[in-house]
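User: My collaborator and I are trying to settle a disagreement about how two of our proteins should look. Neither of us wants to argue from intuition anymore, so we agreed to look at predicted structures for both before our next call. Could you fold the first one, then the second, and keep them clearly separated?

Assistant: That sounds like a sensible way to settle it. I'll keep them separate. The first protein:
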Amino acid sequence: MNWRRRLREWIKVIQFAHGKDVRIPWFGMLLAILSGPVPRAVWRARMRQGCYRCVLFRRDLHACSSIHPQFMGLGCSCYTPFLALWAEPYPGGCIAKFWKNEEVGWPAYRFPSIWARIWAPVGFLLGR
């Protein structure tokens, strides 16, 4: 993952959703990393089979913010490559699962053990 490009895209989505003068939530990003990133295979599956096929996905920004007339204004306005990286960004998984929709979205990830949960941020920060 090209993290510099992803950070620029994340900032762009935040500014799109909240205005150009918004403070970037760096501390929130650090807390998200420490909450436990999912394995790469899970992230890829979430993006390919969940986000890219979802009616709430906005391709030009890679954001969860629908431009479809029927679903206008729905979504969490999050940057999906980062949203899909965390184990349970909303109760139950992504925002679509939080809204109890069984057809779209992806479920929360459960770590196989407490040690896997503890070491996930370390592996992420080391690039593994």
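The second protein, kept apart from the first:
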Amino acid sequence: MSANDRPTGRVTTTITRSKEEVGRCTIHTTTVEKYVDLAGTLTIDGTTIDETGFVDVKTLSTKTNRC
């Protein structure tokens, strides 16, 4: 089995920031999401078919002040 995929457009990046108060602590959260559609071929047992899909990568980081 093998696959050969390539992006069909530009990578879209979305950044989301939030702040939460927990007691005397403040928690800052940043989420970065990168998404791109893919198209290519998939070969299984010598048979090749067209396929589509996507890649979606999310990175989460948090920072807490001293409480």
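Some points you might bring to the call about the second protein. The chain has a mean pLDDT of 95. The radius of gyration is 20 Å.
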